TrEMBL record:
Gene Ontology MF terms: transaminase activity
Organism ancestry: Bacteria, Pseudomonadati, Pseudomonadota, Betaproteobacteria, Burkholderiales
Species for this entry: Ramlibacter terrae
Keyword Protease listed: no
The name this protein goes by in its record: Aminotransferase class V-fold PLP-dependent enzyme
InterPro entries: Kynureninase, PyrdxlP-dep_Trfase, PyrdxlP-dep_Trfase_major, PyrdxlP-dep_Trfase_small
Keywords for the protein's UniProt record, in alphabetical order: Aminotransferase, Hydrolase, Pyridine nucleotide biosynthesis, Pyridoxal phosphate, Transferase
Keyword Hydrolase applies: yes
């Protein structure tokens, strides 16, 4: 646990390039979450790599074909639609081509079951402040498969990543494994909050969590289908749980941000992504089916009465 998702993404992209030299190509999804692309672009602008964009995972075979890809950076779940990629299949394809995989788990970790070791994932990052419940500004996590644990120095060397942190040695000596990736003094209060969340997660059965999340999100989709039919809102996420991440995305072509603000005003906490998506994110540890009934009842009422059109809901939002 250290730093932000973007910083850890930078660290691991650089680490993958070093571990898989002399290959210098990073494969990136064209429409990935913008910050992920920005990090990769910065590395390329520094002359350390070349980027190769894909529009979907279906294009990965052709991107790998030249045999020069060092790392494939993928989001496990699309931040807009919640579409989930097949981690095992894509890891196998990348490995066959001699490339490493780096997964962003921000929209899946803590909501659906993930088996990094079992699927052969090489590297991963993810935020702590979503489903993992680290709180606002919570630190990010990074994962390095043991086979790459000592593949090279970290891209940013700091005293917290030293093999003997409090020896204050004049020269850097990387700590073993993933312990080499922390850099400077951590945000202690944020780490303490995450420690409390981690104590809960240690007792969570991933299979039970996944089943609970499936029940919640399937129920939410059923409620949208039956309670909001003909009101201008449509499902934008896959219906199959195995292809869906942590949230359920709905499409509202008229004004998704307005509708989202109206829902928040009435006590339904969710988010919007421009131009037309709203995202419900049931949490398997705390959300109940009754919460979903109440949320969809509120949504139906706002749509039927068109109260979301109130100008007060038009203030700027993310």
């Amino acid at each position: 646990m250290a730093d932000s998702t973007s910083v850890n993404l930078y660290k691991l992209l650089r680490y993958a390039l070093a571990a898989n030299a002399p290959r210098r190509v990073i494969v990136v999804e064209r429409d990935v979450f913008p910050s992920n692309r920005y990090v990769a672009e910065g590395i390329a602008r520094a002359g350390l790599a070349t980027l190769r964009f894909i529009d979907s995972a279906d294009q990965l075979p052709s991107a790998l074909a030249p045999g020069d890809v060092a790392v494939v950076a993928l989001s496990h779940v699309d931040y807009r639609s919640s579409e989930r990629l097949d981690m095992a299949a894509l890891n196998a394809r990348a490995r066959q081509a001699g490339a490493l995989t780096l997964w962003d788990l921000s929209h899946s970790a803590g909501a659906v079951a993930i088996d990094l070791r079992g699927t052969g994932a090489d590297l991963a990052v993810g935020c702590g402040y979503k489903y993992l419940c680290a709180g606002p500004g919570g630190p990010s996590f990074l994962y390095v498969h043991p086979r790459h644990a000592d593949a090279g120095w970290p891209a940013v060397c700091g005293w917290m990543g030293h093999a003997a942190t409090f020896d204050f040695a004049p020269e850097f000596r990387p700590a073993p494994g993933a312990d080499r990736f922390p850099v400077g003094t951590p945000p202690v209060l944020a780490q303490a909050a995450f420690a409390a969340a981690a104590a809960i997660w240690r007792d969570v059965d991933p299979a039970a969590m996944d089943a609970r999340h499936r029940s919640l999100t399937d129920t939410l989709i059923d409620l949208i289908d039956t309670q909001c039919e003909g009101l201008g809102i449509e499902l934008a996420s896959p219906r199959a749980h195995a292809r869906r991440g942590g949230h359920v995305a709905l499409q509202f072509a008229n004004a998704a941000p307005l509708l989202a603000q109206a829902l928040v005003h009435h006590g339904v906490v969710l988010s919007a992504r421009k131009p037309d998506a709203i995202r419900f994110a049931p949490h398997p540890l705390v959300t109940t089916h009754a919460h979903l009934w109440a949320a969809v009842a509120c949504l139906r009422d706002l749509l039927q009465r068109e109260t979301w059109r109130d100008p007060r809901f038009g203030k700027p939002s993310v």
